[in-house]
Design brief:
With 538 residues, chain A is an all-alpha fold. Chain A is built from 16 helices and 2 strands. Chain B is flat. Classes of the chains: A mainly alpha (538), B alpha+beta (206).
Chain lengths: 538, 206
Amino acid sequence: MSDAAAAHDHGHDDHHGAPAGWRRWVYSTNHKDIGTLYLVAAMVSVLIGGVFSFMIRLELQSPGLQYIEDLQFYNVLVTAHGFVMVFFFVMPALIGGFGNWFIPLMIGAPDMAFPRMNNISFWLLVVGLLLLMTSALVAGGAGTGWTVYPPLSNATFHSGAAVDFAILSLHVAGASSILGAINFITTIMNMRAPGMTYHRMPLFIWAMLVTALLLLLALPVLAGALTMLLTDRNFGTTFFEASGGGDPIFWQHLFWFFGHPEVYIMIVPAFGVISHVVSTFSRKPVFGYLGMAYAMAAIGFIGFIVWAHHMFTVGFNVETRAYFVLATMVIAVPTGVKIFSWLATMWGGSIEFRTPMLYAMGFIFLFVVGGVTGITLANAGVDIAFHDTYFVIAHFHYVLSIAAAFGILSGFFYWFPKMCGKMYNEGLGKIQFWLMFIGVNILFFPQHFSGMAGMPRRIPDYPEAYAGWNFVSSIGAYISFAASLLFFYIVIQTLRSGEKAPANPWGEGATTLEWQVPSPAPFHTHDQTPDMRPQPAE
Amino acid sequence: MSAGRQIPRRRRGGNRATALSLWVFVAGMVGLAFAAEPLYRTFCQITGFGGTTRTADAAPRGMADKLITVQFDANVNIQLPWRFRPVQSNVKLKPGQEALVFYEATNLSDKPVVGTAVFNVAPFKAGPYFNKIQCFCFTEQVLKPGESVVMPVTFFVDPDMAADANTADVSTITLSYTFYAADDQSKAARIQADRGAPSAASDSKS
């Protein structure tokens, strides 16, 4: 079929099997193994971050201080929960995990462009997680919130090494993501199978390309800002110190110039996953392919010009606020294109309600709820009233925590048979979905009410008036926690005793290249580049 | 997949070129993050954005007819052992009219200290129209132990402010100063050395 010389060009390294034992994982340059490592790291992180949020909800279940006497400890919990979930759960799962596994499989490449760089990306992430845990354990911990605003994060108010460790942790995690992004972009640009033009790439590849570009442009700004904070704290610079002519608002600008694209970094890969799942289980090609692809590109672009809507309370003049309100609302347009295209894909389709599809539909519902409150908060006047209340907590948990998590779970159930070669128990999967769906909604929906009533975020105590909905919210947290445990049970049960999965368990709807290789995907795939060129006329 | 067709060979070295150009992006964004600081400062000084006041060499031409109130606010950073207050709490003047006001600072400690002030006006939109001709904030102040100084500020409000639809409603402007211990305490150290006592410069700012 293809000439052997082309394959031999890559050297004999490509053709040995998987090395045995710990060396296979520690020294791994195989995209599937590294993808698996990322997914395992994400699962460990979600347990850590989940326990933190469990402790927060336990404390907030009733008014007064029950379990947490040390208020700085509460601040540390809130901060660590945010960091762990954002940088060590959602990003590694969606980007490092699914990206590494399925970019080469879907574009017909034998591996990533830079396999060794891929290895260092992963292990830097582990170092980042360890540094973050260290930060929580030294000098009272970093209680700055995930936004690390000075002056709270400066040397006066966090004098110990905790914030320095947190900064280093983000530096290292950021470096890991930048390396990963360069790897992804290079792979997608240069290593697609012949015939797979940009306009014929699967939407997950489009999503990963947009995400990687966002990472490449946003993370260096965070790195710069963190470096300035580090030198402010330790070497007497005054970037964010008014006494030396600096400005703490400058931090907020830099942080949110990174932070807003960051929320799209967490959700755009999920968009890609959902498009595949919806199309597969509706047995229809996705509606409006090009619109879907360019909607993601548009969301990514607009994501860089709306950052100040996170800082409406700092005292902008009315023109600045008007611009950021308008630009923020414009995001609803490409987002609406995506939502309606998913619905149009389902419309008239032969829908099969398997677990991944349930999660995809759950994702669409949650993302719409969070999107609508996002439009609410985009109004500067409303935002000034709701700033730092639980309404904001409810909004961003709907979009970037539970919607992103539903995207991850949808993708996980969808691709798990391909990754491990075994089928999960469909009945248990559906129970797990409903438990999770009910749990997260009971958990987060009442927080809209608490927030509108004025309950501030990041405070472990509250007046009696907020007790009712907080109790409901905590019950939701326990249901969600149970659903998470059930998820881990399903993973273990599938790995131990799942039925053998066929190459394509989902039928004719699953059309992308990963379903043409056996399940589990062998150590080396696409040794012979698939030919995606249109058939020539005879 | 069609059997028998030649698969085009992948270009070698293409990956490296792509990765290198992506690294340029990364370096550029880090550079922009750091460049943002001087750019933002320059932008504020040119446009008066965020309540940045202007400096002027000469008195204004013309005068608006509206009477506005300028209030004076004084703050001291917790690490600076000074008392600092405006001599007058406010003045009423017409835009275009030059005013001379005073602030008074007293060193309450038993060591000489160098202080510098930062300043701003509220509302921010009045910033571009607030011109200072002479101001103690332009230089460092050294106060000996117990010394008290009265510091002048000469300013005017640009008469164009009344004509600008965006700022026509401004009837009160607050000029605010905050004194900090200066990073460079060498002047205080010199005075201390002249007095023959050990320098206190180092412990005035931690």
